[in-house]
Amino acid sequence: LPSRRGGFPNMASVGDFNVLSSSIPATKVELSVSCRYGSGSGPLFCVLYTQAIGNKEWREFGRTEVIDNTLNPDFVRKFIMDYFFEERENLRFDFYDVDSKSPNLSKHDFLGQMFCTLGEIVGSQGSRLEKSIVGIPGKKCGTVIVTAEELGCCRDSVLMQFCANKLDKKDFFGKSDPFLVFHRSNEDGSFTICHKTEVVKNTLNPVWQAFKISVRALCNGDYDRTIKVEVYDWDRDGSHDFIGEFTTSYRELSRGQSQFNVYEVINPKKKGKKKKYVNSGTVTLLSFLIETEVSFLDYIKGGYVIGNKLFVFSQSHCNPSQPTSLHYMNPYQLNAYGMALKAVGEIIQDYDSDKMFPALGFGARLPPDGRVSHEFALNGNPQNPYCHGIDGVMEAYYRSLKSVQLYGPTNFAPVINHVARYAASVKDGSQYFVLLIITDGVISDMAQTKESIVNASKLPMSIIIVGVGPAEFDAMEELDGDVVRISSRGKFAERDIVQFVPFRDYIDRSGNHVLSMARLAKDVLAEIPEQFLSYMRVRGIKPSPAPPPYTPPIHVLQTQI
């Protein structure tokens, strides 16, 4: 997952990979959300949901930031989605008034919602859809505006820092509390907010912290596109005072600190009323540094491997010979555990050169003495638990069901620590470990598991948890850390390394398991590249140069005379 701090997650980003069809996504689009309310509201935020293909359940895609006390919020945080012309992507935007610090939506006041499809947004004039917010009978809830913009492929980011001089004084008992708001222009002449600086308190000569923003977000890769910068004086009640504005472009900013990047801050109303008006201060660019973002494929091309995957099965307590068991050995089709393993494993194995995978089980009595184990080899060979390919893992799994007795409790910590020991020996990034846990949701060592995950977040590894069966997966959601970063004994995880998905979201009503498994694999694996990159960034590990393309040897034919 992308780095998520505080009580609300960052926008979700769906990768390029689409296993549902052989087609490449038509494009990536960035959705910007704004609201227009007719009556007052406290701090609020927006939650975007997408609809599952199989059972049509709504799944949370991401949340915006919280905006304080305004009737017309323009959210900075965007939603980035793959757009497929041939797919109908149903969307739901829910709006909440913040009532507590809890990430639990039931703790906040529901303000209404808006339903649409991604195609409806893209197909609207100017890719700008405006619809009424509904959901509260007898009440006009205002409107929501969603704008879609196709993203360019620019991978550069810029690190910029600004300062200001002699800004207008706005506070009666003090000076001003200034901050900057950056907007990029759209093709229809409107503007979309793309960045806000922090507030610098009680000064007319602020120096803001340097900030990093992608060129895509700043100007969508168009170096001459207008960038509008507004200067405000922060007020506690959300009614920030407008000081003035100026315009620039990426091309102008790229000149760096110079006479060309000192901007007069102009307040149009003041300029129209006062003949002697000059400006409301100046803003100066202090530094401009271009950084090229490296991608997951850069590392793969450079020889880094997603290796040593470990597949782990949590054994539920039902007899696998009974049809009610999640481990039921149906002679005609895979059980839930088998389907989840096949869907995810067949994708992951493509990144492994030798196709040898260790596979463990936990929560069972082992022969011959019936001892309880939370870390046993599915193939029965503790000295060499490796299986050849996913088919080998599947074979070992079904064979183990005939030889072990499923038994609780179910402890996650031992298998997480098992992988962590391997990952701790390879910290140079040359190998990255993926642990796949398939479980029925019953966990007996929550405190120890959280501690293991916090410790593992410093290592080159990710954990995928697939929940099977009808159980409530509250514990798994907590381990996922999407809403609140997982912690143990007051220490937070360095990175978000856990991805959880409930298998029931991917069961196709028509019985087309291939379709369900494809969607499962996509959603489960989409975040592995970002988790891999987050480890590399934190450790400062750069990708190795890609080897030169293969050139076949030239054979010179020599003829003797």
UniProtKB/TrEMBL annotation:
Protein name: Copine 8
Taxonomic lineage of the native organism: Eukaryota, Metazoa, Chordata, Craniata, Vertebrata
SMART domains: C2, VWA
Gene3D superfamilies in the cross-refs: C2 domain
Keyword terms: Calcium, Metal-binding, Repeat
All residue ranges annotated as the C2 domain in the record: 1-131, 140-263
Similarity annotation: Belongs to the copine family.
GO cellular component, one term: plasma membrane
Pfam families: C2, Copine
GO molecular function, one term: calcium-dependent phospholipid binding
Gene Ontology terms describing biological process: cellular response to calcium ion
PROSITE patterns recorded: C2 (PS50004)
InterPro entries: C2_dom (IPR000008), C2_domain_sf (IPR035892), C2B_Copine (IPR037768), Copine (IPR045052), Copine_C (IPR010734), VWF_A (IPR002035), vWFA_dom_sf (IPR036465)
Coiled coil: none
